[in-house]
Amino acid sequence: MMQSDNFSPSWPFNNLVDLEPYGLDMDVPFDGCSSFASIDDSSEISSIPPFSTMFSDAIFPYPASGCDDQLQVTIPWDEFSVPLVGLDSMLTDDGVGEESFPLSQSQPCSSQRQDVWSPCLSSEASVHTTTVQSSLAMPVLGEAMMGIDNQLALLHLLTAYGEAKEKNQTDLAEVILRCVTEKGNPVGEALERIAFCLSSQDVQNQRDYLMQESSKNFDVAFKTFYQLLPYGRFAHFAANSAILEAMPNNADVLHIVDFDIGVGIQWPPLIEAMARQHKTLRLTSIRWGEEHFGHSPWRFQDTKGQLCDLARSFGLKLKVEEMGIEDLANELEGMKKRGGSREWLAFNCVVGLPHMGKSKNRKLVNVFLDIAKQVLTRYRGIITLGDGDTCEKLRDSSGFGAFFNGQLMHYQAIIESMESDITKHLVQARMAMECLFVGPNISAQAWFEKWEQMNETCRFDAGTTLGSLKVSRERLMEAKEMVGEKENSYDVRMGGNSGYELALEWRGNILVKVSSWRN
């Protein structure tokens, strides 16, 4: 892991490990928001203990700054109590097992299909496995070969589906998708789990049931997903550090305009950093409306109250507000006519990350970035864009088939990276997080609509008014340290013509990319 004797972090990224010092309460009611999926509003949310006591027995994959020891960070596996009652027929048909189990470690282990479904591995099972290992060597090898054959067959089917859709062979595509359904498996290999999400309406009720039951643990699943997996933490660190790095010393007020504030989880570390500089912070959340943005599980007033309480505890002057993008542009124009201000603007847009639910309309992203560009022709400031969507890199695909394959590779990398960070036998806890935060973005129809709209959404062009902000060596080192790339298959790289992009990769596949421009 990259270390330096004189290495000093530019801001307290290590506090992302434990949000308790910030007093940020992410316990939010999940009310069937369309950002994730449509579920029954009456679903009961399981209660969870305080954030400081809810975790146990897990190690975060990155160390605190200036420290060689790994941080002991807890993961609330015991809080996942989603019952899977009612899935018996689906699991039997898919060849996964004949019994269903709750998402809880307290459930007794079953002797059937223990390697797949049981949340614990008993010592008796281990002894039994050792005893019969030699006698079962050939059958096990045969099962492994069958599994490989199934993966290859599924890959060929998915490729054929993309080609059929590209050629407008709708009937053939539907037939192929039904074949994919037969090989989909919510607890199988990565490609099988993707196939389960992609599959036709034949299993829609099964997917809806998994989503409904998983949503009962939405609050704890959200915390666990953000804490354990690096996608959100990496994007937020890269954007925050770019803002602090670029902000001039003579600026009295930092005015952040946030495309999607959500629960506000990005901003506690920046609030602490601004308090240390004795500056004033203004945070404007853009209000898009449900007709454009969908219903959100996060209540703005709750987020505002928590962030203001946090700022008050640090002695920071903070103003949090919500307004439409046009209203913001008009206000800034009026301020300019009145003689301007000493505000330094930061337009922040983070989209396409799994914990944010379904990807937002790319047209809205373009509207936000275009207005930001126009405003920064008259004001000092920066634009930060964190993107976990694959559309931009797949824009030049030769056809829908290539675009579809690119989407498959992206989500296969996400699922495999999740699997590497979550203990192998905790299948059901991982499945709950996949249902809530990955599955909603895996849709054959949605991918086809994205492809059709590709020509309507243009690349952001900073033009001559904005210059790219090159990633500093310190920011690169901190990001590498955060994801612990020497300990796993993650990698952090600089990109862009002048090194203005910071990208998180998994085995060569870009998962998140953060770019920044300033005037």
What is the structure about, briefly put?
The chain is α/β, with parallel strands linked by helices and 519 residues long.
Main β-sheet: number of strands, strand sense, barrel status? 9 strands, mixed
User: Share of helix among residues?
Assistant: 40-55%
Order of helices and strands: EEHHHHHHHHHEHEHHEHEHEHHHEHEEE
Instruction: Tell how many strands the DSSP assignment holds.
Output: 11
Parts with pLDDT < 50 across at least 5 consecutive residues: 1-18, 26-75, 82-138
Structural class by sheet pairing and helices: alpha/beta
Q: Please give the count of helices.
A: 18
Approximate strand percentage: 5-15%
- N-to-C CA distance: 34 Å
Mean pLDDT across the residues is 74
Computed Rg: 24 Å
Question: What is the 3D form?
Answer: globular
Descriptive labels:
FHA domain-containing protein, two-stranded antiparallel ribbon, 18 helices, FHA_dom, 519 residues, 9-stranded mixed β-sheet, transcription, TF_GRAS, transcription regulation, globular, 13% strand, 43% helix, alpha/beta, disordered N terminus
Structure report:
The chain has 519 residues and is of the alpha/beta class. 43% of the residues lie in helices and 13% in strands. It has 18 helices and eleven strands. Strands 3, 4, 5, 6, 7, 8, 9, 10 and 11 form a nine-stranded mixed beta sheet that branches. The chain has a two-stranded antiparallel ribbon with strand order 1-2. β6, α14 and β7 (381-387) form a beta-alpha-beta unit. The radius of gyration is 24 Å and the shape is globular. It starts with 58 loop residues before the first strand and ends with a strand. The model is unreliable at 1-18, 26-75 and 82-138 (pLDDT under 50). Pfam families: GRAS (PF03514). Belongs to the GRAS family. Keywords: Transcription, Transcription regulation.
